[in-house]
């Protein structure tokens, strides 16, 4: 295949537009008032950007001078004026398995290979609040992530990792306050002021009820714990993102792109309402909110989705919540490529799928990115596949030239029409949720689940009927051997380790600390101070969750 | 050999363990119901004991388990053991999830003759259940 390369548009008629800038270039106003001050603070990586042919590249292309540019409310064209010219996205690969020590090795491997942030995958017992030696954990320890039951475990996990320099993202929800308490206590143990901590806790419990399934407590106390984390972070952790409102799992559960945006932003609305009811300053909260989206297969719709989400969230913050501070209205987001799009057959093909999806996330202006490993339809990723996944991001960042202009697809009639359409459909869906009494009510009535299930079924029927044909699936029925497995012996080792840990504790202090947790759980005070004190007395994650459950009750799936 | 029943096929679908991935099992639930079967679904985090009690109480002919968290070996074989203890070995077992090749033999030995990876056409599951449980009636949805 050959590609025609056009030099810049030679048509002289197009160069006279009545604008203050050359045709297609950013307005002088934007360059002067928005771009220049930003670059003064965050210098661009190069003095000047140009193509291989020496064509100079402007930071922004537009034919509408009146339209807000990147860095301007409502952020359709990106959050930052110079976007990736100043700093590319954070490459943040999700990892965790077996034990804290083994995961620490993988983390250090990834950092050595140039990864710029850590992202911790916890095993299911940890996510739901069971210690590795609990009966509920049998068969599950270290399977889908790392088990963390104690402060010592987190210390081992983050051994030799400088907490003041590496940002740490934790995919943790119903037990988010506990893991955050571990992290704060660890910073203190290492002589650091916890205020230096950078990173994120996912802490998005609503989407667990919708799509992901690690909820431990009923909805109301779960949301209260999420707001406790947000409130504590607002006060004490200025560089930490206390929630990552996630559409990723909603999409993986089978939703469409429109539903992903609508349900995620509807969750965001519910959290802001809960924060407002708590009396928190929404400007402060809004500045530390973050989102997490999926990058799925339809390239242009995905790009449109990210752009629409940014504009929608900014307008929601302003009109629904009256937040006048622009920065507090920013939809900053992490993206992960769509795990459910990967095929077990011919897994090498997944590298290509991931590349296209990652490119959509970049064209959509993501702040950080996880690219899936090619072998993830078979098992947890092997080290070599994890390396290729990270290299994919590095190739896109350093070799493809896609980082040199903000929102490069913006202004295309196709992209703008798709963006408008995603926005109007998602807005209508949010209005429907409002009519049903809001997000929590729409979760409780099963409305959101039913919508996702219907879309999931439709997608499966399209594949089954041959209307959609994933490449390599019908051609090849052979499924390769899983490249990675977790040693089942690890569970026994964890049990022994915890037995020793428990035996060495001062039981009086443990009992006292647990009583204090029960007290604050009941009183409605923020639980974080009591949790930090408790984990410093070696109270375990499972014990804290059990104490909460005694007060809050346990979630039961009524299917 | 168990007697061959007539009438709608009765199936219990269950998610054992802590895994929350229920996209697949909910698709299967819908497909089996659309195919005229009577299906009971346990919801998330069903214990093997609860699964077996439900299967006996509901007098099902087949149990389908789903696990995508790597804990299939533990939970699937436990369900099979408990069924045997209750003298209910004639209940047909099938499973779905990300099941590595090396685990397949052991699961077959435990009675899971039908194992479906993600992406299996729904029709395949419907037809294979029919072929096993209503062999005289032909296949097709």
What does this structure look like?
The complex is a heterodimer of chains A (559) and B (141). In chain A, the strands form 3 sheets. Chain A has a 5-stranded parallel β-sheet with strand order 3-12-11-10-9. Chain A has a 5-stranded parallel β-sheet with strand order 4-5-6-7-8, with helices on one face. Chain A has a two-stranded antiparallel sheet with strand order 1-2. Chain A is of the alpha/beta class and 559 residues long. Chain A has 20 helices and 12 strands. In chain A, helix 12 links the parallel strand 11 (333-337) and strand 12. Chain B is α/β, with parallel strands linked by helices and 141 residues long. Chain B has a single domain, classed as Rossmann fold (3-Layer(aba) Sandwich). Chain B is built from 5 helices and 5 strands. Chain B has helices spanning 23-34, 48-57, 72-85, 101-109, 122-133, and strands at residues 10-14, 38-41, 62-67, 92-97, 112-116. In chain B, helix 1 crosses helix 5 (122-133) and helix 2 crosses helix 3. Chain B starts with 9 loop residues before the first strand and ends in an 8-residue tail after the last helix. The interface between A and B is large, with 45 and 31 residues.
